[in-house]
Amino acid sequence: MNQQLPLSTGHISYSLQGSGPVLLLVHGFAFDRTIWEGLLPELSAGYRVLCIDLPGFGDSTLDQPYSMDRLADVFNAVLVAEGIAECVLIGHSMGGYAALAFAARFPDKLRGIGLCHSHPFADSPAKKENRRRSGALIEKRGHERFVREMIPNLFADSFAKAHPGLIAQLTERALSFPAAAYTTGLEAMSRRPDRAALLAAFPQLPWLFIIGEADDFVPLDALKEAALIPDIASVVLLPSVGHMSMFEAPQQIGQRIKEFADLCYRYLPV
Ligand code: MLT
Description:
Structural class: alpha/beta
Mean pLDDT: 97
Order of helices and strands: EEEHEHEHEHHHHHEHEHH
Low-confidence stretches: none
Bound molecules: D-malate
């Protein structure tokens, strides 16, 4: 079911499917909630799956100022509007950065947290500079070139070559989002703080890490070490997968997210 939550500046779009305990899925930068569609039949069989369009992406309007904390507040506003007291929250990439902000702000509402091709570290100086340059170029010339270069690079090379139709479709969708979503998103990501301390902050909280071995968008070695920190963690290492396992290995991650949600809701004491 598609829903809208009005905000003072516009609205947030989201969908709810299935019944049971809540699994909140959040997409990353340049995408929208439709990236999760391939996983929904499996996940909604046991869970009420809430998929939010981040502000500026999908059918949600841009909401400024943009920050990971503000995104966490938006997630909370949707949960409150739906009368949802707690969730397992899985964030893809930038959605993972926002999930970490949610953990810092609303730890009591989390039964589990998953970082899907995401990580808790702040940007390196080189990454910040890259984002600044990309943002400046988008402001000057629009986001077309940026999007056309970025989308195929998110996938493992062999997958991108074998699936030109999917890449074209995701690129067209990404081009339909406003340029301002890209500039503000880049800026907000570069401002986000390091959240690695959270990994040890909640001894009862289960963590899921979905890691693609061919992902150029996360610091792989540091992330694999970080995944060892929480007391309760499920780590999914996907060989030959890039940044987009919901397309590159959908059955595998659908199954692992379901097992993780089972762990959080059914097997661990509250
Ligand atoms: C994303 O996929 O959400 C972003 O590319 C992540 C990033 O740039 O750090």
